[in-house]
Amino acid sequence: MLKEKIKGLAKELKSEVISNRRHLHANPELSYQEFETAEFVRQKLAEIGVSQVEQKATTGWTALIEGKNPTKRIIALRADMDALPIIEANEVSYKSKKNGVMHACGHDAHTASLLGAAKILHSVKDQFEGTIKLIFQPGEEVAPGGASYMIKDGALENPRPSGIIGQHVMPFIPAGKVGFRQGIYMASADELYITVKGKGGHGAMPETLIDPVLISSHLIVALQQVVSRAANPKVPSVLSFGRVEALGATNVIPNEVKIQGTFRTLNEDWRAQAHQKMLQIAKGLVEGMGGEVDFEIRKGYPFLQNDPELTARATLAAKEYLGEENVLDLDIWMAAEDFAYYSQEIDGCFYRLGTRNEEKGIVSSVHTPTFDIDEDALEIGAGLMAWLAVSELEKA
Ligand SMILES: [Zn+2]
Ligand SMILES: [Zn+2]
Fold this sequence. Notes:
The chain has an eight-stranded mixed β-sheet with strand order 1-2-4-3-5-16-6-15, with helices on both faces. Helix content is 36%, strand content 26%. Helix 2 (35-48) runs parallel beside helix 3. The chain contains nine helices and 16 strands. The two termini are 19 Å apart. The chain is α/β, with parallel strands linked by helices. Bound molecules: zinc ion (ZN) (2 copies). The site of one zinc ion has 4 residues, from loops.
């Protein structure tokens, strides 16, 4: 049976997937600079013998694994390859060799898992019908997102897959388990850059000044009404400001205040309305208090929608592979992920690979200097991806 065969191959390949992951972990590269990583992936794909390897978006690749009757149906599997500007604090043999760059989001694990899945799928390609398209993308962590460049560069064409499956490590889920969610799953994320301009001067003479600090204080409070009053309570929205810069002193009121924040939601129409609302409130309030405002909204990734049918089929396949008890239902997650771009083009399923292990002390969140994964999860990372792909080719 193909499932048992894939499980066996995943077990055999586990040490290779771990060693690939360790190589990538020790040699991380920042977004859009994944040159050595891309070369490593290209070599591995050549060793496996996949066909039609094509360079996309400078440091990305697409490749095909063709089964019998290759045009019958096409499904894509995606991995991201970039690391983060973080100084690794883990003392491990595979610690980052680049100071200040770290695979702290598990993209090393995603790339190694997809290479493992590719090797498995290549060795069973006479046992399924259809084609599996591999997508290795750069730049997930930095807007506008490597996925958007991959799509522009034709990653979803020639041949066009009907659906795409992506996996991401999840340090809140124990290794051995995975998580799925049908429908809306992750948020859109937009960066907000506000400059409130007034007229600075001596703090003892406010009557001669236009105080941008006071105006900004009102503005931060007023903007929350977008989330608390204007938003439909059934559509999750988050507005957070993480940076407020007023470079005055106890007795000096500055000329301007800079504010930075993020706006996240799960509906594209509401997202656009909220932008207008924020701009309107800011202009009205700041000008009403005698100041001026520059308000720049840098649009990030769209929200991520998991196609309900594809995700239901994948969830079922995961239950067949791992057992019912090891497949969890996920809640909405207000982080953003550029897999969302693919999910706006074709059916998408973005699921979570559990990588937590409290006994081994592996509990840190992604994007932290102590993030790591329980590498035992990589056997599932490679095997399950392969199984989801062939199941999807068979079932649909
Ligand atoms: Zn990340
Ligand atoms: Zn990530």
